[in-house]
Specification:
Elements (H helix, E strand, L loop, with lengths): L4 H6 L5 E2 L3 H6 L14 H4 L1 H5 L7 H8 L2 E2 L17 H14 L3 H9 L5 H6 L11 H8 L2 H25 L3 H12 L8 E2 H10 L9 H18 L7 E2 L12 H7 L15 H14 L9 E3 L6 H8 L9 H6 L6 H4 L6 E7 L2 E8 L1 H7 L5 H16 L9
Antiparallel strand pairs: 1-2, 3-4, 5-7, 6-7
Helix pairs in contact: 6-7, 6-13, 9-20, 10-11, 10-15, 10-20, 11-15, 11-20, 12-13, 13-14, 19-20
């Protein structure tokens, strides 16, 4: 699909649907550097910024995310951070145009408007060596009053849509709500980086000092431009996380194109402004990544005392690899419900700094959540936030 003349004209200026200045200010606090398995920066940094916006209602958030910013020029040819004079950027434009059947001049117009973002490159770096993981600290970022209140309001407003998604895809409503809450505090913090900038930066200037993921980001940049062409979006106007994740559920562009769902029936998948599309898309994603309807996510477990047996159970990490009988034969103690579970289990360890670790027996559904973000800490936060939101009394949604 090639862009229309109207769409080509949009590339000559900056503007389009985006976040309002008010939300940009709320999102301006510096994101924490990612540690292994951390969720997107928009979620990690949100608690510190959320205090200033705790009283914002869901309706106010939706109004903010559909505001229009006055067009303004943010980069000009010759800027040090511009990609307009880069031969590798021009070559990438040719590759993307060919791979996605896009007009090369249009792709080059987009890439030549991109600017290098040093913060995106910096946030790609792993946490310093010796940084201790701590489930208790991690949990406190997400299972906290501001996020729970926002979740209860979201649950009340969209309960019918959450239940419809559960019926259609088999993913419990509380898990869907937990994902959206952990990712963006129910649409409040969807990121203030221009997606065009960060994906171009991470495609052509991926930081040294860690494994090179530039091929992944080149693929996502191509998917992003294809998405913009399909949905008639100005590439320079779409905002997201430091890694290029977009909207309420923080989907990467390729995931929007592959797993996004028009759940509100308006004829378009819009994860930036439609919480209903976000609900359907999260459920669809998890269903397609191994969710088993009716199964629990984990069981309590007492690990074996024998070090060798414990190491054997921990070796596959979060991948379910043992039957309940096999875990018991190695010395693990499981509740009766787990012994009746027919699927494989994983002994999952979450560190607590210098304190004793937390261990659970994760099921296939626990593993499915980690396909969204490859972290056991993330998965357990999603589960516990969803439980807190779905089980809280309605009166808990009011502001203090």
């Amino acid at each position: 699909m090639k862009p229309s003349q109207r769409h080509l004209a949009l590339l000559s200026r900056w503007g389009g649907l985006s976040l309002s200045a008010a939300l940009l200010c709320a999102c301006s606090s510096t994101p924490l550097p990612p540690t292994e398995g951390e969720p997107p920066a928009s979620a990690v940094s949100a608690p510190s910024a959320a205090s200033a916006a705790a009283s914002a209602s869901t309706a106010q958030v939706e109004a903010v995310t559909t505001a229009v910013i006055t067009p303004q020029v943010l980069s000009t040819p010759g800027d040090a951070d511009s990609y307009s004079a880069r031969d590798d950027a021009r070559a990438l434009a040719r590759d993307i145009a060919q791979a996605h059947e896009l007009d090369e001049a249009w792709v080059w117009s987009a890439l030549s408007a991109a600017r290098y973002k040093s913060q995106a490159a910096r946030l790609m770096m792993p946490a310093p060596r010796g940084t201790a993981k701590n489930w208790g600290v991690y949990r406190s970022r997400f299972i906290e009053p501001i996020r729970i209140r926002a979740g209860i309001a979201f649950w009340q407003q969209y309960q019918a849509e959450l239940q419809r998604a559960q019926a259609q895809y088999g993913v419990p409503a509380e898990i869907i709500a937990g994902v959206i809450g952990v990712e963006t505090i129910y649409g409040r913090y969807t990121g203030n980086f221009r997606v065009l900038d960060v994906l171009t930066t991470l495609s052509l200037d991926f930081p040294t000092g860690r494994s090179d993921r530039s091929p992944f980001f080149k693929k996502e940049l191509g998917a992003f431009l294809k998405l913009c062409a399909e949905q008639q979006l100005a590439p320079d106007a779409v905002l997201g996380s430091y890694a290029g994740a977009i909207g309420w559920p923080q989907f990467m562009p390729s995931s929007i194109r592959r797993w996004g769902v028009d759940f509100d029936g308006d004829g378009q998948v819009n994860l930036q402004r439609s919480p209903v599309d976000a609900i359907g898309s999260v459920a669809h994603y998890l269903a397609e990544h191994g969710w088993r309807t009716g199964q629990p996510t984990f069981f309590d477990v007492t690990p074996p005392e024998d070090a060798a047996a414990r190491a054997k159970l921990l070796a596959p990490d979060i991948v379910p690899s043992f039957s309940a009988d096999e875990m018991r034969a190695l010395g693990a103690i499981l509740p009766d419900a787990a012994m009746q579970h027919t699927g494989p289990l994983a002994l999952v360890l979450l560190e607590n700094g210098e304190a004793a670790p937390t261990l659970i027996a994760g099921t296939q559904n626990f593993y499915a959540i980690t396909r969204y973000n490859q972290s056991s800490y993330y998965a357990l936060a999603v589960i516990e936030l969803g439980q807190a939101v779905s089980q809280a009394p309605a009166s808990s949604s009011s502001n203090p």
